[in-house]
Amino acid sequence: MVNVRLCFYTNGYQTWMWDDTFYPERRVSSFFSKSDLEWLIQKRTERKNTTEYKPNALIAGRIYQIEAITRVAETYEKSHRHALLVMATGTGKTRTAIAFVDFLKRAGWAKNVLFLADRKELVSQACGEFKKHLPSATTCNLIEDKDDPSARIYFSTYQTMLGLLELDLQ
After folding, report:
1. Which residues of 145-168 are buried (b: 16+ CB within 10 A; e: fewer)?
2. Is the Cα torsion angle 18, 24, 30, 33 positive or negative in sign?
3. How far apart are CA 136 and CA 28, in angstroms?
4. pTM
5. Coiled coil: which residue ranges (predicted)?
6. CB–CB of 63/96 below 8 Å?
7. What pLDDT, in 10s, does the model give residues 41-73?
């Protein structure tokens, strides 16, 4: 039996990737670079079981925040690629996101993160909060900095991100 590690296939218009060890096939925008492929392979061996980690209660310590992070991590552990948290105003969405990013990075599940918001003020606020709670993480506000290849956590509005994507397509 052939052990397929990563398989890319295309019809000339769409490209798909199949990772036989964890996720089902999915549509991707293009073939991966060598460094992206190396990261995928490295992540397979270095990714930890999320049950071995607990969310940082100093960042997001409310019971429902910890529960939300734990449940999303369980969802990812079951080979799902998407999860949605719906939280009301004042419930600590940003701090939950910061604690979740910290959780995923410590467990070896995330390398880069994109934080999207609908207003510049929210992007600036979130960037400041991430710097405050994760001071060792390198950040880049795409509204102000435009690009920092050394950053691991990026911040942007939807509109700015769409503009950057349009520039890349030209």
Report:
1. eeeeeebbbbbbbeebeeeeeeee
2. negative
3. 31
4. 0.84
5. none
6. no
7. 888 778 899 988 999 999 999 999 999 999 999
Q: Are 113 and 153 in contact (CB under 8 A)?
A: yes
**Fold entry, domain 49-169:** Rossmann fold (3.40.50)
Could you give the CA distance from residue 79 to residue 41 in angstroms, rounded to a whole number?
Answer: 16
Residue entry with tokens 């990772």: 19
Query: Quick one: tokens of 16?
Result: 């798909």
Amino acid letter, residue 65: Q
Helices 120-133 and 93-106 pack at an angle, to 10 degrees, of: 50
The one-letter amino acid code at 110 reads A
Give me 75's structure tokens. Answer: 């969802």
